[in-house]
Amino acid sequence: MDIQSLQLFAGFTSTAMFVTSNLPMLLKAYKTKNLKSYSFGHIAMSNLGNLIHWLYVSSLPVGPIWFLHGFFTAATALMLFWYLRYEMGWPGSNRSENPT
Q1: Which letter does DSSP use for residue 26 in this model?
Q2: CA-CA distance, 100 to 98, in Å (whole number)?
Q3: DSSP summary character for residue 38
Q4: Domains of the chain: which residue ranges?
Q5: CA gap 70, 97 in Å, rounded
Q6: Considering the entire predicted model, what is its pTM?
Q7: Alpha helices in the chain, H assignment, sequence order
Q8: CA 15, CA 13: separation in Å to the nearest integer?
């Protein structure tokens, strides 16, 4: 196996590992709609960082990094949307109002 094949294999393998390690977080957030344990600042900065990082990724040839970064971008965008909807009470959320 030459070095380029080894690098490509490593890229695909690590991408699969990173994606599968994030899926439980996304599934739990989707099912429970409870994001109290997440920091809004962290989610917002992750989204900003992903947008800036696309400037670098877009200069690379299409490969595992595109899929990995695309997944991270989608995951953090989803977490931001869910956080705003379920924790901050955006319109359309399923939060029940507590009449006093």
Answers
A1: H
A2: 6
A3: S
A4: 62-90
A5: 36
A6: 0.78
A7: 3-32, 40-57, 64-82
A8: 5
Q: Phi then psi for 6, rounded to 5 degrees?
A: -65, -40
**Chain segment 41-97, per-residue pLDDT in tens:** 999 999 999 999 999 999 999 988 898 899 999 999 999 999 999 998 876 655 554
Q: Cα(52)–Cα(49) distance, rounded to whole angstroms?
A: 5
The single residue listed with the structure tokens 């109002």 is 97
Region for residue 96 given its phi and psi (left: phi exceeds 0; alpha: psi -120 to 50; beta: otherwise): beta
For residue 18 the two structure tokens come to 């990173």
Longest dimension (CA), the chain: 70
Quote the tokens at residue 42: 């962290």
Residue 10 corresponds to which amino acid? A
Q: How many other CB atoms are found less than 10 A from the CB of residue 35?
A: 20
Cα–Cα distance measured from residue 39 to residue 54, given in angstroms and rounded to the nearest whole number: 23
- Could you tell me the pLDDT band of residue 4, with boundaries at 50, 70 and 90? confident
